[in-house]
Amino acid sequence: MQSHLTRRVFRAIINNEPLHFSRCHRHQLLHTISPARVRPWVPVLHVPRRTLFAFSLNPTTETGEGQPATLSSEKGLQPMTDLKRSLEDKSRAPPNHTLTKAFQLFFATRVENPGIINLFQARLLSITWRHLKAQQEELDDREYQDVFSVENLERMLFVLSEAECLPESRATILKIARYAYAELCADHGFGPNSVSRPALLVYINLLSSNGCPAEARNTIIKFGGRFRGAKPSPWLTVMKGFAMDDDKRQLRNIVRDMEKYSLTFDQASHEELINLLIEQGQFKAVQTAYECPITGDFDPGMVNKKVVIVEPSVATKKAVVKYAILNSEIEWAGPIFHSLPREPLSEIVGITLLWEAAQGSNASSLAEKVKSWIASDPQVKDALTIADLNSVIQYANASQRPELAPGFVRLAEQWGLVPDQRTHLLQLESYIQAGAVEQTLEMLEQRVDIGLLPSENLPLCNKLIAMLCLSKQRNALFQRISSLLDPLFQDNVRLDPTTVAALTRMLLYRHDWEAISELLRPRLGTYDDEGKGVVRNVITDFILDSSQKDEDVWDVYELFKLAFPQTAVSVRTEIMCSFFERKRSDLAVLVFGHMRQAEDPRRRPKPDTYARCFQGIARNSDATNLELVHNMLKLDLEVNLNTRIQNGLMLAYAACEMPEKSMEIFRQILQSDEGPSQKTIGIFFKVCEKHHNGAQEAIKMLEKIKKVGLELDRRLFTGYIEAVAAQCEFDLATTGIDKMQAESGVPPTSTTIGLFYNAIPYQYWKDQVEEWAVQKYPELWAHLATMERSEHEDGLKFDGIDNEIWV
Description:
By secondary structure, the chain is mainly alpha-helical. The chain is 62% helix and 3% strand. It has a two-stranded parallel ribbon with strand order 1-2. Strands 3-4 form a two-stranded antiparallel sheet. Strands 5-6 form a two-stranded antiparallel ribbon.
């Protein structure tokens, strides 16, 4: 049975590319059934159960019988994707009316919820714009209006400005914005530069927020007269951009530029800029902006009307100190805090309370301090608010000390304050940090409105879901987790990668591939490489989990292969080796083959991959796949044949009962520029175990090692013992063990005797080894006798004793 998990499906998952199925039901979107060559198909009885997604898609959004709904993030993408492919293969492009409508639909759909624009989508937009621009003279009025009308151009700028642009898509997004801006500034019969002020403000914000504040400043200078009275001032937007770039010199230049237009960067403007940056979560930018000089009013008494430099306002100082404390930058905040006016204390009691908590005061210490403050200034009691106490609880959570939060919460009753919803949310966060599931659930039931949680504190909602998914009680809490997720999915709320990773992990161990597909499809394409990596690592861990069934792991691997095409070769190699560990070399070699088929040369096998593949084939004695991979190596012009790869080939051919071939490869190593390594010699002894002239070859190699002065360590010497033992050379093996101390510098151990016993064939000879060891090395044998032995084709062997050579 063919797997529904096709490359087309996961291209959509990765890029938010639209899906179209002819007769594939929504709940059959991602059944990952392995191909027939891997395992036989077994019919599965579907038992109705509560899945992660309790709600159903609105029937009106269906695209036809049995077809999945098109996500809002997919609207308009399909025709643009078709255009991209037609340009690549030089085929007929979609009609202009189809492309103009798709382009217009993409932006119109995102006005209410701009969402995220990834690199794939940005490139489609850029390609489509350039194509339509080249076709501009051939468009009819309706087609022209869909793309080049002022309304659509301004809509483009708005969506691009409000959407979250992933770092890798930023340059392309800016390019598209410049296209729209240039079109708005062009002369369409009303003169050039007739662009509206709202569009200019949006464009300036887009440039400043995406690393181009200098270009935004030039736009302000070009259209200076258009911005009189604009709130917030576009100058502040540009300053925000330079602060995010940590460009102090340009910030000072902006202040001087503002003076040219009779504008001042006063305390109010400074406070507004700081608040903008705090909302952005940019601490370094806050530091940079805080240190920017502030100008006061012109001094009318001075002839030159020199500008007076003033300090930041008290409100700004308090906001900055609080933000610094919550970001563990207490040392930097110290001078600012101490510069606050000390009288009256009631004016700064809130920030002082937070400062004391940051200095290590616990709940009882704070209670004593507040008591003393009230004694000296009774107004402190009325000035203290629940918001001030909330800041202290927030600090406990921010500093990862949730054990302090309960004590701080109890201070509310002592000070006559009434906890608000913010207090309850902070208390909930402390329970989540502590992993206290029972208290978390109790808080959810009694104090926190679940329906308001996503809108009031989405980061906390993410932490809550992740904590429940990772708890030991996750199976019992599955219904609760599902009920939390339902409204988030219905409202298309964006989840953090860590939350999606936790959900994915839970669903993996529930073997709910269908739910995983519905979880990932609209989200994976909205994350940057780091975010995708968090989700990918969870899936990789499941694949590497040896406790899972081969069939389930292969199903998940197929999902992994198509969902994460950019995965490094090192990770894919670990997955390949995990299948060798499972004794499924057939699947391991399929993984290797997928690497060989990668379009990107960086994703193809490296010398280490080949070496580890041959190592795995040797452990599985898989002659069929050995020949297959060896042929791949011969055809691979990108990989240089080094000693490590040839070591792997030697080992693999020996394990597959082809010692002559191994000897041939050994001679090739001897003639190579790199030459043999110490591991090559160890593998040579392994080959001697099965070679028709193995005993003589092993003896000659031992003599050569002594002659050239090569270090004869325990592993090599034991390899020699195994080689002669495997050839039933009992006397040579026992003599070697007796001389081991003298020739290698290390005495024999119980492992040495055990390897001798395991290597020699036939039970008769094994009994001879036991009789000899009891007499010659009684203590070593006594230790061996406590170990388990299992039956093999050529007699008993000690379990857990091995001298495996790694290439």
